[in-house]
Amino acid sequence: MRKAVLGSAIFVTFMLPWALVLLVRPTVPVPEWCEIPYRIDNQGKPTGTLNATMRTRFKADGSSTSILIGAVIVQDRQYRLNRVSVSSWHRQGDFMLVNTRKVQAMADDTVPEPLAAQILFTSARESHSDYYQMYQLPNGDQIINYSGMPRLYCHT
């Protein structure tokens, strides 16, 4: 009996703080619209630059749509980038899991697929999952981070 009471006390001592953190934590909505300009200089092979803007709409049903528009410059050759991706997202506390389900190059997109696979970031690749960390600013806007670098600045 004494062991059961002691075991229960230890369990409550360690689990109660975590339960309170999860239950008391305020829920911050995912912003509906996000936009970020990108400039990525690829130092690997192929050496090149990605200048683009990504606009994402997160819907309440857990789906999202992103439009990636810009240019890819490789070896003094410029390609037009215009892709639409469809994803699903799930909020997990201060993190968001985004699964890219489909990516489609639009008619005016001239980036060859082998080059796109090498130079585009992971969220622009089909069947890829990314975790993002979310942080709400005092004015209500949100920053969504990836690998410790600002990813999306979102105004709500």
Summarize the structure.
The chain is α+β, with helices and mostly antiparallel strands. It contains two helices and eight strands; from the N terminus they run αβββββαβββ.
List its traits.
alpha+beta, 8 strands, 156 residues, 51% strand, eight-stranded antiparallel beta sheet, single chain, elongated, 19% helix
Could you describe the 3D structure shown?
The protein has 156 residues and is α+β, with helices and mostly antiparallel strands. Helices cover 19% and strands 51% of the residues. It has two helices and eight strands. It has an eight-stranded antiparallel sheet, with no helix packed on it. Strand 6 (128-136) and strand 7 (142-146) form a beta hairpin. The longest helix has 23 residues, at 2-24. The radius of gyration is 21 Å and the shape is elongated. The model has no long low-confidence stretch (mean pLDDT 78).
Strand/helix succession: HEEEEEHEEE
Specify the overall morphology.
elongated
User: What does the average pLDDT come to?
Assistant: 78
Total helical segments: 2
Strand content: over 45%
Structural class by helix and strand composition: alpha+beta
Biggest sheet, in brief? 8 strands, antiparallel
Low-confidence stretches: none
Radius of gyration: 21 Å
Give the SSE layout:
Layout: H1 2-24, E1 33-42, E2 48-58, E3 63-74, E4 77-92, E5 95-105, H2 113-119, E6 128-136, E7 142-146, E8 149-154
Antiparallel strand pairs: 1-2, 2-3, 3-4, 4-5, 5-6, 6-7, 7-8
